[in-house]
Amino acid sequence: MTIIAATLAFSKAEIIKRASQVEITKGKKGSVITKDGGKVISVYNPTEQYEIVQFSDAVKQLLGVVGKIFKPEFYNINIKTGFQELKLKGASHVINGDVFHEMIWLTNSSNGSRRLSVRYGLMRQICSNGACITLKGSSFQIKHLVSNNVNEELKKFMSGLPKLEVMEQVKILKTIGNKTIKVKDLITNLNPEKKMEITPAFIDLVKKFSSSKTDAIGTKQDALITGLNVPIKEMTKETLDTPINAYSIFNCYTELFRSADASMIEAQTNKILEVIG
After folding, report:
1. What are the E-state strand segments in the chain?
2. Residue 95 and residue 18 share a domain
3. What is the mean pLDDT of each run of 10 residues along the chain (277 residues)?
4. Domain membership of residue 61 as a residue range
5. Taking a C-beta distance cutoff of 8 angstroms, is the pair 114, 132 a contact?
6. Are 213 and 239 contained in the same domain?
7. What's the alpha-carbon Rg for the chain, to the nearest Å?
8. Which 3 state secondary structure label does DSSP give 133?
9. Residue 152 domain flag
10. Same domain, yes or no, for 127 and 28?
């Protein structure tokens, strides 16, 4: 899945019209059938009792409260074989030279590939990087199981959504724009056991440092890239003590997950903020 930018002018009627073309029903032996415009696009056979959530119902619930949360300006609906997404994009904020938008992101699934989820906060919009900075108490995700009372839990969440206030998140991002972190500390903080041992996450980040079109480490530090592409025992003290801009780390790390779903983007964004915090 690729991240789809919300570029269509907001229209409640058009959103409901498109969402209503998706129909999810139960078939023989508990199978879950998804149709788009009357055409079957997915047949899923769950191993557990599966609770259906109609995409159109979830969309209508969100649109029913969105005016109390923020003012949407653009939208996008993404319908795939077994999942559906709605993005609503609002006001923009320029942070460290990048544009972030206030955004609400609804994801529904009908093939077990994703949990029902709603997230809102700030979304970075540059190239295909979709860093998602969510607000405390503004995330919802639940498996489509009958035992979870999914539809009722969604209603409860929607009815309690607070107004979107993003200034705290803006402040956090502006703060890391002036911070640096030494290579040795980055290695340690990316290691779940907090050891100075290289992890796959660090290796992937180094690769992104050298390939990112927007946040690659500049020519002054080209030698550093070479120095990072070696086992830790071969790194020099100079390399290990080299400071890297925290915002560049943040951007390059979140770029690694630009094709992930909403929950992964949120989790990894929060992880790297903790690492560089």
Report:
1. 8-9, 22-26, 32-36, 39-44, 74-79, 83-95, 98-109, 116-124, 132-134, 140-142, 180-182, 243-245
2. yes
3. 66 97 92 95 91 95 90 93 92 87 90 86 62 63 87 86 78 89 94 92 87 63 71 87 90 80 76 89
4. 8-164
5. no
6. yes
7. 21
8. strand
9. yes
10. yes
